[in-house]
Write a structure and sequence with these properties.
886 residues, alpha/beta, seven-stranded mixed beta sheet, 38 strands
Length: 886
C-alpha cells in the first residue's frame, strides 16, 4: 500500500460522461478542496446505504476519514461525478503495490440508476492503466446486489471469491473486445437518449426572433411552421415582447425564463456577444437542448462548453445552419436554409452548412431524402460521433453521410461508426487534403483540422467510405440505395463507342476498381447476342450499330455473371442506332443478386439523374466517368470492409511492454516535459519491442568509439548525437564507410568540439550490404491515438511514393494490407522481399505506440529489407508526458 513518501497519484482532468438516461455528468479528480461536498454526499446516504458502503468498518470520524482519503499524500486517486454542479458520485482507487489497487464507490440514491457508478469506473480504469495498475479489487457485501451488478456488467474479466459476508471482486484491466463492446453499447444508447430533446423535441423556442423579414430567427420560425412542427413554438424577443408584437404569428417573451411552458429545444440566433448569457439562461430554465446558429464565437468556445457541462445540456453549434428531421411523426425543421428537405432515410451530419445545402440540392434530383440532418458547425459539444450513435439507434436511417473537418475523438468515432456501418452504408466527403484546404478548414471550424491522413486511416478502420467531391457522394449514395451491392470480381464496361470505353476503364482503374479481362465462357455468351464485329473483352465494345435489345441482352449477361462485380454502361445515339433504352432494359431484367449498374451519359446537361426501374429500384446516370468510377469504388470498398476477417489483435511474439515502460520513465525523469530518447535508450526500446535492429555500440568519447570500431571489425558507420538534432545525415553527423579506428576517433572528436555542451555521444554500427529501404513509424494523434505509417525510406523518404497510414494496433491481415497498399510489393522485385518480416515490424511498432501513451512518435528509417529479412538501421523515438498526467 502507498505510504506518505510515495509520490501523489496525478489527478484527472475534467471530462464529460453521458449517463444512461441521456443526462450528462462531469467527471473530475477530487482533492482537499472538495471535502465538504464529499462529506455532504456521504451524509445524504440513508442508514441502509451507509451500511452497504462501509459495513462494520464505518469510520467513527467521518469528516476526518474524508479529509484523509482526499489528502494528495495518501496515494489515492479520487474521482467525482457532478450533475448540474451537484456531486452525485465518488469512486476512489488506492494502489496496493504489485499492480493492484483497491476501489470503492458511493453514489447518491437519487442518481443510482443512471449509470453514474459505471461511468466513474470506466474513467477510473482508463486512468489506472497508465499508472501501471493491472487489477482492481473491491470488497462488496453479498447483499449489495446493485453494486455487484455494476461490476459484473462492466465488461472486464472478473473473478469472485467469498470473504465472510462480503464478495471479493477482482477486475483485470484487460480492455478486450468484450469490454470495448460494452463501453460502446453504453455510449450509443446514452448519446442517442441525450439527443432526443434536439431531434425529437416536444416544444421549441427561438431566441432572437427578429422582426425584420430577413432576420435569421424569423427564418427559423418560418421553417418550423412550413416544416409542420406539431408542438408548441415560442419566440423570445425583448423589444417585441414589450411592444406586444408577435413575430411570424408567434407571441414573444422577454427571455427564456419567462416562457409559458417547458422547452425541449432552444434555437439561439442572437448576436455573438449575447450567446453565452442566453445559453446560461437556457440552463437555468432547465432547457435540455440548445442549437446555436450565431457565428463569430471562436473565443467563447471554452465558456460555451463549460456552460453545457455545468447545466448538463446538449449544444449544437455555434455557427450552425440548423437541423432538420422532416419525417413523421413530428417533423422538425429548425434552420435558416430557406427550404424544407424531402423526407427519406438518409442521415446527414456536416460541419459546414454550405456543404449540407449543396448535398441536399444534388440529392433532390435523385429522389433521396433525409431521415435527419444536423449542421454541427464549430461542434463545441455535439459532434459526429454523437450523431452516428443517433442514426444507429434510429431504424428509419438507411444510409449515413458525413462531412467533418475536425473530430476530437476519432478513436471513439471508429467504434461507433464501425457498429453503424455493419447495418447501413456510411459515406464521407474528404476534406482538408491539401495544405490550403487544411488551413481553410481550421479557420472555418474555429479549431485545428484533423490531418487528412489520420482521418482517412480512421475512416478506413471504421468502414466509412470516402469520396472526393459532392457529385461522387451523391452518385455513391444513389448507387448504394438503389442497386444491389457489388460482388467479388471485375468491373465490366459496356459501351457502343470504343473511345468512351477506354475513358471509362481508365477512370475505374484510377479509382481503385480495376477492369480485368472477362472469362472465355462469358465472352462467348456475349458474342452470341452482339453484332459480329463486337469486341467482347473488357471493355465490351458492342459497335455503333447495336440495337437496344442486343445492348440490354449483353447487360443482362454481365449482371448475371459471377465473374462481374459491377457494370458501367455508356450508350450514345448514332446515325445507325440508339442503344440507350437498353440500359434500363438490361438493368430491369430479373437477375437474382445481379451486379449493380452505373450509367454514364457523356455530354449531358445535368451531372446526375435517376433512372427508374421496376419494383421501386433505380440506377444513377452520371455525366462523367470519374464520378461513376468513384461511386463504384466506394461500393466495392464497402463490400471489402464487410468481408474482411474479424481477426483479433494479438501481441507480437517477444514484445515486452513492461520492459519498455521504465525506458520512458527514465526519459521523463531526465526531461519532465519529454525528449528524444538517447541511443542506448532506443536500444532498450527496440529490445522490448523485439525489433530486428543492427548491432550498435553507444559511445561517449572518441576513444570508446575507436574501440567499438575495432571490436566490430570491417567498415563501420559512425553517427553523432547532438541535442536538438534529429536528422543526422542532413547535419553532417554521419560518416560511412570508415575502416580505420583512428579515423573514427578523429571524426568523433571533431563532432564533439563543434557541438560543445550539446554533444551527447556517438553510435558505431557495422556497414551492412545494401538493400531496399523502407520507413516504418508511428505517431500519437490527439484524437486518433497511435497511427502507423509505412512507405519508402532513406534520404528520399519524403520524395518517393506515398505512405500508408492505419490505426494501431493492427491485426496480421491489416498489416499485410498496408504492404499491399504501398504498391511497393506488387512488382516482380517487390515480390522477392521479406514481406512477412516487414509486416511483423509494422505490427511491433504499432503495438508499442498503442500500449505506451507517453510514446509520442517512433520511426525506423531506414528499415533495410531484402529477400533474407529486415534490419532496422536507424531508430528514433520521442517521449512526452502521458495524457492526463499532472
Amino acid at each position: 500500500m502507498s505510504g506518505p513518501g510515495d509520490p501523489p497519484v496525478p489527478q484527472a482532468r475534467p471530462e464529460r460522461a453521458l449517463l444512461r438516461d441521456g443526462s450528462t455528468a462531469v467527471l473530475a479528480g477530487l482533492g482537499p478542496g472538495d471535502a465538504a461536498e464529499v462529506l455532504e454526499l456521504h451524509r445524504r446516504l440513508g442508514e441502509r446505504d451507509t451500511y452497504l458502503r462501509f459495513a462494520s468498518s464505518h469510520p467513527a470520524d467521518l469528516p476526518g476519514y474524508v479529509e484523509r482519503t482526499l489528502d494528495p499524500g495518501s496515494g489515492a486517486l479520487t474521482l467525482g461525478a457532478r450533475v448540474r454542479g451537484r456531486l452525485v458520485g465518488v469512486v476512489q482507487l488506492l494502489p496496493c503495490g504489485d499492480g493492484v489497487a483497491e476501489v470503492a464507490a458511493v453514489v447518491d440514491a437519487a442518481d443510482r440508476h443512471d449509470g453514474v457508478a459505471t461511468a466513474l469506473l470506466e474513467h477510473l480504469a482508463a486512468r489506472a492503466l497508465p499508472l501501471g495498475i493491472g487489477r482492481l479489487v473491491a470488497l462488496v457485501l453479498a447483499e449489495n446486489g446493485p453494486m455487484l451488478r455494476v461490476l459484473e456488467e462492466l465488461g472486464l474479466p472478473l473473478a469472485t471469491t467469498r470473504e465472510g459476508t462480503a464478495q471479493r471482486i477482482e477486475l483485470a484491466l484487460q480492455p478486450g473486445e468484450r469490454y470495448r463492446d460494452a463501453v460502446e453499447d453504453r455510449f450509443r444508447a446514452a448519446a442517442a437518449a441525450s439527443l432526443r430533446p434536439l431531434l425529437r423535441p416536444r416544444s421549441v423556442a427561438v431566441v432572437g426572433a427578429g422582426r425584420s423579414p430577413a432576420s435569421v430567427g424569423r427564418a427559423v420560425l418560418r421553417s418550423l411552421r412550413v416544416g409542420g412542427f406539431p408542438g408548441p413554438v415560442h419566440a423570445v424577443n425583448p423589444a417585441a415582447a414589450a411592444a406586444g408584437t408577435p413575430v411570424e404569428g408567434v407571441a414573444c417573451a422577454p427571455d427564456v425564463r419567462s416562457l409559458p411552458g417547458p422547452v425541449d429545444l432552444a434555437v439561439v440566433c442572437v448576436p455573438a456577444p449575447e450567446v453565452p448569457d442566453v445559453v446560461a439562461d437556457c440552463g437555468e430554465a432547465g432547457v435540455p437542448g440548445v442549437l446555436v446558429l450565431s457565428g463569430g464565437l471562436a473565443a467563447a468556445r471554452g465558456r460555451l462548453r463549460a456552460l453545457a457541462d455545468r447545466y448538463g445540456l446538449r449544444l449544437v453549434g455555434p455557427n450552425s445552419l440548423g437541423l432538420a428531421v422532416p419525417g413523421v411523426p413530428s417533423s422538425l425543421v429548425a434552420s435558416f436554409a430557406g427550404r424544407v428537405p424531402a423526407a427519406g432515410d438518409v442521415g446527414l451530419v456536416a460541419q459546414s452548412g454550405g456543404i449540407a445545402i449543396a448535398a441536399l440540392a444534388s440529392w433532390q434530383r435523385l429522389g433521396l431524402g433525409l431521415a435527419a440532418g444536423v449542421a454541427i458547425g464549430d461542434a463545441v459539444d455535439v459532434g459526429v460521433r454523437d450523431l452516428l450513435a443517433w442514426f444507429d439507434e434510429d431504424p428509419g436511417t438507411g444510409l449515413v453521410v458525413l462531412y467533418a473537418e475536425s473530430e476530437p475523438d476519432l478513436r471513439g468515432l471508429v467504434r461507433t461508426a464501425a457498429h453503424l456501418a455493419r447495418r447501413v452504408p456510411v459515406l464521407a466527403v474528404a476534406s482538408g487534403t491539401s495544405g490550403a484546404g487544411a488551413r481553410a478548414a481550421g479557420s472555418h471550424t474555429a479549431r485545428a483540422a484533423t490531418p487528412s491522413v489520420v482521418r482517412e486511416a480512421a475512416y478506413r478502420a471504421a468502414g466509412v467510405q470516402t469520396v472526393p467531391d459532392l457529385a461522387s457522394l451523391a452518385a455513391a449514395a444513389a448507387l448504394l440505395a438503389g442497386q444491389p451491392p457489388p460482388r467479388s470480381g471485375t468491373v465490366a464496361v459496356l459501351t457502343n463507342a470504343g473511345g468512351l470505353g477506354v475513358l471509362l476503364a481508365d477512370a475505374c482503374a484510377a479509382a481503385g476498381a480495376p477492369v480485368d479481362p472477362l472469362p472465355a465462357d462469358l465472352r462467348q455468351a456475349l458474342a452470341a447476342v452482339l453484332p459480329a464485329l463486337a469486341e467482347t473483352g473488357n471493355p465490351v465494345d458492342t459497335g455503333a450499330a447495336v440495337s437496344a435489345a442486343a445492348f440490354a441482352a449483353a447487360l443482362s449477361l454481365l449482371r448475371a455473371s459471377p465473374a462481374v462485380a459491377a457494370v458501367v454502361t455508356s450508350a450514345v445515339a448514332t446515325g445507325v442506332g440508339d442503344p440507350s433504352p437498353g440500359v434500363v432494359g438490361g438493368a430491369s431484367a430479373a437477375v437474382e443478386d445481379g451486379a449493380p449498374v452505373v450509367d454514364v451519359r457523356f455530354g449531358r446537361a445535368t451531372l446526375l439523374e435517376r433512372l427508374h426501374l421496376p419494383g421501386g429500384r433505380y440506377l444513377v446516370s452520371v455525366a462523367e466517368p470519374a464520378t461513376a468510377a468513384r461511386a463504384l469504388a466506394a461500393a466495392v470498398a464497402r463490400r471489402d470492409w464487410l468481408a474482411r476477417p474479424a481477426g483479433a489483435v494479438e501481441v507480437p511474439d517477444a514484445v515486452d511492454v513492461r520492459a519498455a515502460r521504465p525506458v520512458l520513465e527514465t526519459v521523463l525523469r531526465r526531461a519532465p516535459g519529454g525528449d528524444w530518447l538517447l541511443p542506448d535508450e532506443v536500444g532498450q526500446l527496440c529490445a522490448a519491442a523485439g525489433l530486428p535492429a543492427v548491432a550498435t555500440r553507444w559511445t561517449a568519447t572518441p576513444e570508446e568509439a575507436a574501440a567499438a570500431a575495432a571490436a566490430l571489425g570491417g567498415p563501420v558507420a559512425v553517427k553523432g548525437t547532438v541535442a536538438g538534432v534529429v536528422h543526422k545525415g542532413d547535419a553532417g553527423l554521419l560518416r560511412m564507410p570508415v575502416t580505420d579506428p583512428a579515423e573514427v576517433a578523429g571524426t568523433v572528436a571533431a563532432w564533439a568540439r563543434s557541438a560543445g555542451p550539446d554533444w551527447r555521444g556517438a553510435l558505431v554500427q557495422p556497414v551492412v550490404p545494401p538493400g531496399d529501404e523502407l520507413l516504418v513509424g508511428a505517431v500519437r494523434d490527439p484524437s486518433a491515438g497511435a497511427v502507423v505509417a509505412l512507405g519508402p525510406g532513406g534520404r528520399a523518404a519524403d520524395a518517393l511514393g506515398h505512405r500508408v497510414h492505419r490505426l494501431a494496433p493492427l491485426t496480421g491481415d491489416e498489416a499485410a494490407a498496408m504492404l499491399t497498399a504501398t504498391g511497393l510489393f506488387g512488382t516482380a522485385h517487390g515480390s522477392t522481399l521479406d514481406r512477412a518480416g516487414v509486416a511483423d515490424c509494422v505490427r511491433r511498432v504499432g503495438w508499442l505506440a498503442d500500449a505506451l501513451p507517453g510514446l509520442a512518435e517512433v520511426e525506423i528509417n531506414p528499415l533495410r529489407v531484402d529477400g533474407g529479412g529486415c534490419l532496422a538501421l536507424d531508430v528514433r523515438a520521442r517521449v512526452t508526458a502521458p495524457p492526463g498526467a499532472g
